[in-house]
Fold each of these.
Amino acid sequence: MCGIVGYVGEDKSVEVLMRGLRRLEYRGYDSAGIAVIDDDGVLNTRKRAGKLAILAGDLEANSINNGRTGIGHTRWATHGGPTDANAHPHLGDNGKLALIHNGIIENFSVLKDELLSEGFTFESETDTEVAAVLLGREYQRLGDLSAAFLSVVGRLDGAFTLLAVHQDQPGVVVGARRNSPLVIGLGDGENFLGSDVAAFVEFTRRAVAVGQDQIVTITPQVVTITDFEGNPVEFEEFDIAWDASAAEKGGWSSFMAKEVSEQPDAVANTLLGRIHEGQAVVPELEAFGDDVLASIRRIVIVACGTAANAGYVAKYAIEKWTRVPVDVELSHEFRYRDPVLNAETLIISISQSGETMDTLMAVKFARESGAKAISICNTQGATIPRESDAVIYTHAGPEVAVASTKGFTAQIAALYLFALHLARVRGSITAADAAAQVVELQAIPAKIATVLLQESAVHELAAWMSDTRAVLFLGRHVGFPIALEGALKLKELAYIHAEGFAAGELKHGPIALIEPGQPVFVVVPSPRGSAHLHPKVISNIQEIRARGARIIAIAEEGDVAVLPFADTVLRIPLAAPLFEPFLAVVPMQIFAMELATVKGLDVDQPRNLAKSVTVE
Ligand code: F6R
């Protein structure tokens, strides 16, 4: 939520900042702006409401001087609407200091009153401008940007990453971080700052994650980090595991289309190095020791949105294989209801970005209450893994489209590996059964590839349904969270009312929604699975069909029982029941993407959304 980039080095700040913002735009696209100190030592700022292209067009029509030092921002509006005035950077110290911000400064109105009483004035409605003016005031007093930051950060409540430059200190960018992400890119004679490594990966793959409550100062040659008291902090470098081309569209019509198609690789890469001699062995869990894993009495999964849907899917597998009870909780509900937690509770957070504030707060709360925490995360150097006892990274590669797709399937793969590892340690599964599940898991990438081949059938369906105003999704067992996920995708991409229901729940109320022509997607469980599930879902289909529903069934190859009752059948390859979610979700992702495209919508940047939600 909000993308931040900082640069110091050669006389190319405008290009570096704009390229970084292009890669960060998925984090917010309400407005964008840059500030650059030119070679005459003058601070130039340009900012525009709307997507980055508007700022880029503005700069093309009327360029600003280049320079060696600068900051850039792409915004997801919180305080104040998406206007030119509210766009970042904001200025302090009579226009000599520029500041950008990701997060929310909760005590901004108290600080604003203080500054107003001292005669300072404001041009925007934002909390960020308050921080800029405060920082400017402290710069005037102390004459040094890092010192001014040290003086200001203690006065700010809430979540923030702040970056600033001052025209009297060219060649320096200073940043501070509390509860919002900030990563350093280490170059040769140049250094970078970014909300995530995408901001600078085309220039360097050497990075450092800035820790909680730290201030970082970069010059072309030197990087310094201190804590909020000014004590020096040692830092460790890491190598970014993917290159810039992974974050490019590479000929696809959208990032989402590319990412949907990358799911076979996302799952295969997540399995890599975690299967030995036919058994799931997750090296990252060694941090715990088998005795700790064996002592777990309860698992609580915390996550939001699509990541929570991955958690709901995994609950079925974890409970079946490990016999440990699992609750799945939306992170933002979790800590406010005084949950029962202790040292025998394991918290598993799931977050593609690793920055979702609701999930971060849930993890911190759980650990403070004595629970152990594992993070399932796709982003190196992100905050949630750093706040956890262990992390199992998904290796899906960068996910740029706002709607999560390959992140989701990779999360389920990581959770299944976790479950099989835990089951082995606890002895709750036979080696033969565990090995059979691993074989199923290893077969998933090729099976997803088969589903992707049938894309055109889904495109036709979407074109035919372009005027549809509401769609329902039904599933049972692991098909239920897939119904939730199908509905979420359609809502967020095509702005169509969509609901996912457990098929058995229909008769308890939602069946009243069915009227002639109502499209209903049904995830049909395998007839080879539980003896009861398949016929029950077929009965559910009949019940709604009798009331005029138009049925789109997602059913496995060879399931002929579904044919008399479905208007359209989308086929998925045979898989053991617990593995069907990997396959059944794919046509739903494609359907939502295609329907949005047919409606002329931007599938990568749906309205009102941002990729990583770093506010509560
Ligand atoms: C929907 C979507 C969101 C995210 C949710 C959690 O397509 O992407 O629902 O899944 O905001 O994000 P992460 O996984 O980054 O914590």
Note: Residues 304-307, 351-353, 356, 359, 403-404, 488, 492, 612-613 surround fructose -6-phosphate (CB under 6 Å).
Amino acid sequence: MGKTLSIIKPDGVAQGLIGEVIKRLENNGLKIICMKMLTMTKDQAESFYEVHKEKPFFESLTYFMTSGSIVVMVLEGENAIAKYREIMGATNYREAAEGTIRRDFATDIEKNIVHGSDSPKTAAFEIGFFFSSFEVTG
Ligand code: IDP
Ligand code: MG
């Protein structure tokens, strides 16, 4: 069993897509084992996206991620990281496969509805960023 971190980004929450995203996760065999809603500060967003700090989109991305409430979840399941990335679709919604969350709802390469960890190492960092080990019991 693997774990991954999922975020419904401010655009997803603002568009009323919390239920739709959760339905797709559950329909695909991903179990939600932790969940909360919060609004990140700019400092928190910058720490969370530290790996992207040299990218030209870093400032815009971290500002966007503080622009409204987000829903943060830990998902558990077989190949959870890869499976969730498949359900999300490619970063650029124009390249995302049909039926993926980003293809169906994203409006921009930045405003792409959801976040998902990309490796076991980043999943461990990202889960620990939002949840304590006491909360992540599965
Ligand atoms: P991912 O979310 O599919 O893992 P990353 O490359 O890790 O994609 O980028 C993190 C986030 O940064 C993306 O989800 C998107 O919101 C934003 N982003 C990525 N590439 C660009 C870009 O070229 N322009 C603007 N925003 C971008
Ligand atoms: Mg990424």
Note: The domain at 2-6+17-130 is CATH 3.30.70.141 (Alpha-Beta Plaits).
Amino acid sequence: MQILDGKLVSKAIKDQIAVQVAELKAQGKKIPHLAAILVGNDGASETYVASKVKSCAEIGYNSTLLRFDSQISEKHLLDNINMLNENPDIDGILVQLPLPKHINEELVINTIDPSKDVDGFHPMNVGKMVSGLPTFIPATPYGIMLMLEHYNIDTKGKHAVVIGRSHIVGTPMSILLSRNSNPGNCTVTLTHSHTKNLKELCLQADIVVAAIGKPEFVTADMVKEGAIVIDVGINRIPDASKKSGFRLVGDVKFDEVSPRSSYITPVPGGVGPMTIAALLKNTYHAAIGQKGNQN
Ligand code: GUN
């Protein structure tokens, strides 16, 4: 069993981008600038956004964080997005999800200028991704693809079972893995809450991608010997022994699944850091005017 070390791989990617940013600087060119919008005080969202902003500083990007109270009106939020759209210094915009119930998430995403949509959630970018055209790939699936690429994992002809069909992870992941590319060329089964024989399907999987947000959902009896296991879950479990009052666990029961797997991502330190590295790559491409990456 080999650990897929997201911390290590993301650091390598960030170091590489830092060099590219230094080159831009030396040539007097524009420094990438990411704007993040955070609405409300959800603890997990706060952590993710703080981590994104911190990573920008580490590699030499400029960043702007716009914070709003959870009571913000939809109109005020949309006005702010439009302001960022029109600001030529801003290259990438991300609105941390989920948003409060009174705000129409779809409308918010549709308002982001597709050329600044570094999350790759705008329907125009989703359409390009599905068509195999260069665009911004949603950061979590893109990060997973970068991880598979880094470890030179041969995915060709493998059966990948993706658990969860969210627009953020499961659906784009299923598309990327099935593409005629490397990594890619998998036979993909996309499973969800109405899938009847999930365990049997998982047992057939050479690659399992768990993205359902249920703590330790994937157990050893669901995983074939030698499978590659990608754990996208970041779940907070109450733990009185921790200062924060919680600990993080994935969607995979790591202790029992890891001995059966050939490769596995830990939580934390697996997919999470890769998501940030992928976001930074998308932002770089936005800044140099290359509309998305070639992946
Ligand atoms: N919430 C959970 N994952 C993501 C993500 O990748 N981007 C944004 N904007 N919000 C998220």
Note: The pocket of guanine is lined by residues 94-97, 119, 139-140, 168, 275 (CB under 6 Å).
